[in-house]
Amino acid sequence: MVKLISESSFADDYGRNSPFTHLLLPINRGIADTISQRLYLLEISENGDCIRRPIKLQLLESMKRRFSKFVVGSCSGLLSLSICKPGAEVICVSNPLTGECIELPEHERDRADKSFVLYKMGFSPFVDKFKVLRIACKSWDDSETEKCEIFTVGVDDRWRSLGNLFSRMCIWADWISLNGALHWILQDSSTVGISTFDLAEEKVGRISHPPGLVLDSSTMNVALFRNQLNLVDCSVPSQITIWTMKEYAIASSWTKDVILKSWFPPDVHVNKLIPVERLHNGDIVFGHCAVLISFNVKQKKCSQFEGFGVPRIASRIITYAPSFRSPVEATKEAHWGTINV
What we know:
By secondary structure, this protein is mainly beta.
């Protein structure tokens, strides 16, 4: 049983079939050891009951008292964290359930305060490896990239260059990891579409978006709900449209749910609500700040989760599939000079 729940595929299968829905709430106050004290796991049952569980990561001594960004992302049961120190950034991979945490080799920051760096983590079931992507852009408001590198957990001992694989990047676009590839909306001067990065082959590709829909990276984002590719469309001011690809890579399998903002209570700041997950019964969970709402698509009604005891929810709520996979075990094949665990 322990081996089964430690397998990489367990988290994805659990997220797809479990009657429970899990969300991670990183409450960031600016320093790394505060993140470990203010990370909450929410478990939502089929009947809408919500249980809060505090999570405390076993951060390394070398990470303490460093100013931090926050949780970079979640993938197949593991989290990636970005922790800053003068002149460099430390990327960590952690399992929030077991508390285990490893530190990847440091990387010198590009042009210090002038460049904006993105970190994205994904998992490929085809090679059974986690990979972390590092993309340096010229600045926080410039989509032109300067450098792209990748690190394979358990294999590499240093960051590898991918050359000019991504010439331009939408800095604020959401990314998801699904079926061994990263997905995001890419818009440049000539085209716009859902781009993919195959983690096994380390190649860029495309996947079909809803037929007839004109994509716009400023009002649309990809999302992962119950382990399916989704597209959140906010291009119409009065509504939120959620597209779901029922069968991966099949263009004709896209379906949509249209949610009018007028269906929400008047005291809810609808324009700030972000869809974060779909419950097992089909309801969609929206969240922002101290509000967490479940919306029943069929009945066009919503209800607010009460009493989960978190004073303020981070604007970026993270979907999470529980797993006991060990990030420490993933490093045992690596030939690193120093492995911090």
